[in-house]
Write a structure and sequence with these properties.
Helices cover about 20% and strands about 45% of the residues. By secondary structure, the chain is of the alpha+beta class. It comes from Acidisoma silvae.
Amino acid sequence: MAKIHYKIVQHDGGWAYTLNDVFSEPFRSKEIALAAAKRVAAEQHVPGDSALISYQDEKGQWHEEMSQGDDRPDADVVG
């Protein structure tokens, strides 16, 4: 099982959460960003349907792969 960590950081005049150097939208306060990150991390644990997903890697390349609905990462929030 993959382990992922959302981080809370200052960003764009406010606060955001990041995952692998990708920023969320900015929030007015650290507390609001933290609550949003905790919500997103909790949603990572919810199983769903298998689906074809598209994602962009750190080099800007797009990929498609089949994501199994029961293959969920262990997600948490740090910082």
